[in-house]
């Protein structure tokens, strides 16, 4: 049965409606805005792309742009010239592409073996000089330098995890590195390990581009059975938010950049107080650039949990649960944060929501966009 959003009209005051207009528009004049390319990682046979209209929040022109099976998660360089993808096909690899800025297409540059099966996440350092990838089945993390032409150099760091908690049956018998996140200052690489209930911290020497265990704190010990999956820093860089797949929770840590430490503050459920009767697990976490809202996805319950964030303490308060099409594997905010796009792997669609700029509240917009098995969205 096709997914249909609950029908509810969007009622906003005129000032709020104006706030939703793109920055190049005014109440008197509507200037045309060029569509933005959206790159879509998936479990199909190629990386796909679509054209996103930031004025209307609509997607069109879905197309394959690079033949690469199981190219799940993607990372895009800040200058918009390069795209990096992990492919879970075969032994696992990290692939580099040049982006055609006029056509939104991709040209393959080179690839490097991830040196572990099941690579599941990839991330560029803030300065764009390094690419990190996590191997889920291998329980390891690897880092490559990025050359000026976008090509990946020889690996400069590899770490094999060994710790596993075996709290959650069938999922924690061995380490499972599940994400890679750089601190805003680029000095730490954080690797959530689902099997070990830890977020490992690797310190980076910015001058030499070498990495090793963080001497001040080697890892964040997460609640038993949490299964940390992905992590994201707040826009002010003061707090880290970790989505825990197995525990259906979000954990908050405070970042002391000078000390290089991240003590835990709290852990909250991503489900409503009454819980959820069926099987469910989390997937993705994102923070509004204004810092006032944190979003987390529930697969099974098929909702986006919305939290209000206190900027001073970093603590979260549940603010609602928004239905989305089945298996929201990943979601992303548009560059202007006026739209949130949810990739539903099982429904083969991307759903679009209008974002209230003041509160972060979500309202369904238009019909879901069809695309095969989407699992990652990058503008």
Structure notes:
The chain has one helix and 30 strands. It is mainly beta and 379 residues long. The strands form seven sheets. Strands 12, 13, 14, 15 and 16 form a five-stranded antiparallel beta sheet that branches. Strands 25, 26, 27, 28 and 29 form a five-stranded antiparallel beta sheet that branches. Strands 3-2-1-30 form a four-stranded antiparallel beta sheet, with no helix packed on it. The longest helix has 6 residues, at 14-19. It is globular, with a radius of gyration of 20 Å. The model is unreliable at 1-31 (pLDDT under 50).
Categorize the overall geometry: globular
Q: Tell me the strand percentage band.
A: over 45%
Number of helices: 1
CATH architecture of the domain at 43-273 and 366-378: 7 Propeller
The CATH topology of the domain at 43-273 and 366-378 comes to Methylamine Dehydrogenase, Chain H
Biggest sheet, open or closed, and with what strands and sense?
A: 5 strands, antiparallel
Specify the structural class: mainly beta
């Amino acid at each position: 049965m096709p997914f249909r959003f609950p029908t509810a009209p969007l009622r906003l005051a005129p000032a709020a409606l104006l706030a939703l207009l793109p920055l190049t528009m005014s109440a008197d004049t509507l200037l045309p805005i060029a569509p933005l390319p959206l790159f879509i990682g998936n479990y199909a046979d190629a990386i796909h792309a679509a054209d996103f209209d930031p004025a209307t929040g609509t997607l069109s022109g879905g197309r394959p742009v690079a033949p690469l099976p199981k190219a799940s998660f993607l990372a895009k360089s800040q200058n918009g010239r390069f795209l990096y993808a992990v492919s879970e096909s075969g032994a696992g690899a990290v692939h580099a592409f040049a982006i055609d800025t006029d056509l939104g297409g991709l040209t393959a540059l080179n690839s490097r073996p991830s040196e572990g099966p099941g690579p599941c996440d990839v991330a560029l350092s803030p300065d764009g000089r390094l690419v990190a990838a996590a191997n889920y089945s291998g329980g390891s993390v690897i880092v490559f330098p990025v050359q000026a032409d976008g090509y990946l150099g020889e690996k400069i760091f590899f770490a094999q995890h060994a710790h596993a908690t075996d709290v959650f049956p069938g999922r924690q018998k061995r380490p499972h590195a599940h994400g890679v996140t750089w601190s805003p200052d680029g000095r730490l690489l954080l690797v959530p390990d689902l099997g070990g209930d830890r977020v490992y911290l690797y310190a980076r020497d910015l001058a030499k581009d070498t990495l090793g265990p963080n001497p001040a704190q080697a890892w964040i010990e997460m609640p038993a059975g949490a299964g940390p999956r992905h992590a994201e820093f707040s826009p002010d860089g003061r707090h880290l938010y970790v989505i825990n797949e197995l525990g259906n929770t979000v954990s908050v840590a405070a970042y002391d950049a000078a000390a290089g430490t991240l003590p835990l503050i709290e852990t909250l459920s991503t489900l409503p107080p009454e819980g959820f009767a069926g099987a469910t697990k989390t997937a993705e976490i994102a923070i509004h650039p204004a810092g006032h809202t944190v979003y987390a996805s529930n697969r099974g319950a098929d909702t986006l949990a919305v939290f209000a964030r206190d900027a001073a303490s970093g603590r979260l308060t549940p603010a609602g649960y928004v239905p989305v099409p089945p298996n929201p594997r990943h979601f992303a905010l548009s560059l202007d944060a006026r739209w949130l796009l949810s990739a539903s792997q099982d429904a083969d669609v991307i759903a679009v929501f209008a974002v209230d700029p003041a509160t972060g509240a979500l309202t369904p917009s238009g019909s879901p966009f069809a695309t095969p098995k989407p699992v990652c969205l990058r503008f």
